[in-house]
Amino acid sequence: MRAFAMLAIGLLLGSTAALAQPKSAGAPDPKVLEDLVAASRVLADLGVVDGFGHVSVRHDKDPNRYLMSRSMAPGLVKADDILEYDLDSVAVDPKGQALFLERFIHGEIYKARPDVKAVVHSHSPSVIPFSVSKTRLQPIYHMSSFLGLDVPVFEIRDVEGPASNLLVSNPKLGAALAKVLASHTVTLMRGHGSVTVGTSLPQVVFRAYYAEMNAKLQSEAIKLGAVTYLTPEEAAASANTNDSLVMRPWELWKRKAMKPE
Hey, which end of the chain has fewer CB within 10 Å, N or C? Predict the structure, then answer.
């Protein structure tokens, strides 16, 4: 009986531990929250996201935590909607709110890429055709030089088989997506959308927007005939220049998006 009682206690404690919520890293810098709210609204204003899509940022006090809103339309996000997650994408305090099904995109990328400080997932319309065709997304002008010369495509069937709903809704799929992303700045998701990463919120918003613009311009250029894409040297030189100019459009976009309602 004593052995049985000890086993029961052990199972109970193990179950409790498994369900325990992760500890908070503490209150983030208010500027980080402000920029995360602004990023959500800017992406909505720019047409990169609509009622769907999300943006996150790594916690400024602990790289093993990240911040993202509860499940809601990005253009409506306020500071009170921001939740803290560990890298397993478990909310520190969900506050009874619904969470994004695809939050595992963010947690698994943060695990795999210590250099990444912000992540955007979107279904931006001009990008999606490149996820389902043999034409690869390539940088057509200097503003999209960060794309590099080979934007990979995540094929969920390679992980889930033929009957998935195309959503990255568990850690296994998130890790597989992060593996395809590898060291790139953008990866497409076949029949779904894309993921963009950056070293800051202004940079990741910049990249998400100009990835969409590049896709639109590339589609138009293809209609005209043979396309001259950026060379490796041009892409590298332009990317360095653009990184130093990220704050110029960010300040404009943020001011417009955060006008008092």
Answer: C
